[in-house]
Write a structure and sequence with these properties.
single chain; Rossmann fold; 2 domains; 7 helices; 32% helix
Length: 230
């Protein structure tokens, strides 16, 4: 079992520091999934800036299975893609890399070699339940207010299941995520842009750093902020 999430007090907030876990929060749902799967190879179609590519690579390495990442071809691969490759993943660069094309190429590859295609954002009911279980491992009472970034919405829905009486806030980035009953905020930056304002803790600039501009203006003291990765 992976270590429980680490929670720290920072600037008056309770910050879940999953940047301390290699692969971040996504690894918490991917690693148990592939551990019990009969498949030996796992395929993921990732946006260049997506954190799941690294989470899958690390989880596959730790379970002695294989990860193959499909992503758009870039002149200079994103650091997360390079990190996934360094962790042992096979990386396939797709020209004309609209996400729909990258996903089609990943599905075709998976069917051809008999690999399992991991859904975008690892967005499954099992993932939601896994996030809820990880949240409940924290040695805290149910928080009054919870903040996180949402790419697919899996994280906020898991946190809502863990803490149904809290006030949940989700900062949407990129596509239109399923944020459940959370109060939704829309990040002003494009998905590929870095956050305009970054939190005082290590945070992925294209991803969960984008919540800080809302937290510092709106969140109440003592709110719980979930940091996915750095």
């Amino acid at each position: 079992m992976l270590p429980a999430p680490v929670i720290c007090e920072d600037h008056g907030y309770k910050v879940v520091r999953d940047d301390m876990l290699e692969g971040g929060t996504k690894r918490r749902v991917i690693q148990p999934m592939i551990e019990k799967s009969p498949y030996q190879e796992f395929v993921y179609a990732s946006p260049a800036y997506g954190y799941a590519q690294l989470a899958l690579a690390v989880a596959a390495r730790e379970t002695m299975k294989s990860a193959t990442i499909f992503t758009a071809r870039r002149k200079h691969p994103h650091p997360l893609t390079l990190a996934a490759k360094a962790a042992g993943a096979k990386v396939v660069m797709v020209p004309y890399g609209y996400l729909s094309n990258v996903q089609a190429k990943a599905r075709a590859y998976g069917q051809r070699v008999g690999a399992l295609c991991v859904p975008f954002g690892v967005d499954t009911q099992e993932s939601v339940k896994a996030i809820a279980a990880e949240a409940l491992r924290l040695d805290i009472q149910e928080p009054a207010e919870v903040w996180c970034v949402s790419g697919s919405g899996t994280l906020t829905r898991g946190l809502q299941e863990a803490w149904p009486h809290a006030e949940h806030h989700a900062v949407a980035i990129g596509a239109n995520p399923d944020t459940g009953k959370a109060v939704r905020h829309i990040a002003p930056e494009k998905f590929e842009q870095n956050a305009k304002s970054r939190p005082p803790w290590p945070s992925s600039p294209n991803y969960d750093a984008k919540l800080w501009q809302f937290v510092k203006k709106t969140a109440r003291p003592g709110a719980l902020v979930w940091n996915v990765g750095a």
